[in-house]
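In the previous chapter we treated chains in isolation. Here, by contrast, the input contains two separate entities that must be folded as one system, with a combined length of 443 residues.
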Amino acid sequence: MAGFFSASTFRQVGNAATTQNLLTIENIDSTKLVWIRRLTVQMDTTAVLTAVSPLFKTSRTTGVPTGGTTLAKGLFDTSASSNANTIVRGSTASDGGANSGPTATAGDVVWERFMTRIHTAVGQVLAPDMSMLPIIVDTQNFVLRQNQALLVHIVAAAGTSNPATNHYVVNVCWEED
Amino acid sequence: MAVVFRGTAESLSIVGNDATTQNLFVIENGFKSRVNVIINRLTFGCDSLVALTSVQNIVRTCRCTAVSGGVTLHKASFDTTQTSDANVVFRSQNNEVALITATAGDTLWAQLAGRMHTAVEQQNAERDSERIAERNLMPFTSSSTNLTVRPGEALLVKVFASAAASNAQNSTNYTVRCSWAEDSIDTFAISGTVTLGGSPLDGAKVMVIEADDTALTNAYLHEVKTTAGGGLWASTIRAGKVGAAFVQYESGGAYYTAPGSPYLMQ
């Protein structure tokens, strides 16, 4: 049913690997479209990193994601219900819990950006919204058609750049046909 | 319908509660309300007074039920000619004096709160969250992503900490603020004439009841009208709801009553 919806991951910790899938959103409906309106990552890091920061990428996927934790979908208006064929997945079912996916194969990269690191562990650490799609998708449709998905994932130069002392929260807001 | 009010509300300055969860702020649209609440902006500030070297707290916006407690906040208007619906209520925790009780539902948005790794130099407790996409408690968008709180619904802003020590009392201070619009709900008119002994009667009291359905779910007294101009009275019922009206009248110590028509519907 048409309307706006959102989902938010639990706090996900770094997996000490060079790649990590943080969130997927998929549309498996044969007739309905999904338009992404906002996609953000926030990051906290409690350990010093003097090497290059992990790179965060938003990619279309090849194939439909599986696994992970299916996230609850927030309703912007309770008069509208989200299509069951719109599925959002994170990697854990609790703040700081064990990672378990989602499994997805990254295809074309749509957007990428660095987040943050602390070169020395002093002073204030903020975690602003980092847009994982250009802000223009707010008004210009970024479309997920049947069996299409977006993946937010990390590509780190080394596993040590993505330690368990890194913490990630991903938010997504979308509109349904 | 039409926007009949625009306003803002701000929480008190709230200190941490030495616990892993803390309810900060509630936007409540009472079931009697005649407006839908459209949230335009919902942001927070966080000032950390001591260092925190572990992960920062998360502030989440959730739908919620079973709301009580806290202190009721003033509603500031964009235009003083407009009046907010009395059933639209904003609540803030007042530290240990007035706690908010609410049952959190699905999360709509989450935001890390910030921290000081070491207590040095400047603390940006408040960046201008109206201009940069930071400390938002709902998506920062310009499209018509109307976050709507309908009558009988509420939103909760709540802190989640990884450990109670991360949300220590007197080490963290929060503020929450909201800008919203009230969109009037369609109504239909009901009216009648009260008579006594066949003659129109002024001064009679007509009690107008409104309910969700014919089972009288959430029935409440909408208003009391006094007949005038030849026993006339008129009121409104929200579209999709059910109305009822009955009459009470007293004259010289004599009491009268009269039933209304059953189930006034559109």
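DSSP finds no helices and 14 strands in chain A. The mean pLDDT of chain A is 95. Compare these points with the single-chain example from earlier in the chapter.
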